[in-house]
Design brief:
With 177 residues, this protein is mainly alpha-helical. Helices cover 65% and strands 0% of the residues. The protein has one domain.
């Protein structure tokens, strides 16, 4: 065997790209927090079930069953990807969790004020109970903090790694002279 061939166990995996991490973070955040929202719905903290996202587009009672919830979780994960990409494009350089809180509140406002007419099954803010409004606002804030802090952390880590690599390259070129 040649000495140049590395054993498979000694090979390093290529790290995920920043955009891949953003997509994974958005999807996981969307699925995770929609499942938490479903639990909140089961315990009557909120009147809004995650499958409400299917109401305008899907026909039939299947959307109220297990399949409807699974598809809703996946669809909300896809929407989470969109929200994460927007955050990464605009706010990734700000590493403070407070920005995630503001981002979550902004998403909540967009969904419950701007997009509300698209979802006839969701009452207006004034018609929903106080518990429903607070629970949903908290879920959106937690999603915003999860996505925002994760993306900002990854961005700052990648920037730090680039700087370290530049310093190593400079040190190595200085040593070679």
């Amino acid at each position: 065997m040649s000495e140049n061939r590395e054993l498979e166990q000694n090979k390093r995996e290529q790290p995920m790209s920043f955009m891949t991490k953003v997509v994974v973070t958005g999807f996981v955040g969307g699925v995770f927090w929609s499942i938490i929202g479903y639990v909140a719905y089961l315990f009557s903290f909120t009147e809004i079930s995650p499958n409400v996202v299917l109401q305008p587009w899907a026909l039939g009672d299947w959307k109220k069953g297990l399949l409807g919830y699974i598809i809703s979780f996946i669809l909300l994960g896809v929407f989470g990807i969109g929200a994460a990409l927007i955050y990464a494009a605009t706010l990734k350089q700000f590493p403070h969790y407070l920005l995630g809180i503001v981002y979550g509140i902004a998403l909540w406002g967009i969904v419950f004020f701007l997009l509300n007419p698209m979802f006839p099954a969701i009452k207006t803010i004034q018609e929903l109970t106080f518990d429903t409004n607070i629970t949903n606002l908290c879920l959106y804030i937690l999603f915003g903090v999860f996505v925002g802090y994760s993306i900002s952390f990854e961005h700052s880590e990648m920037q730090m790694q680039k700087q370290q690599q530049q310093h190593q390259d400079q040190d190595q070129s200085s040593a070679n002279k």
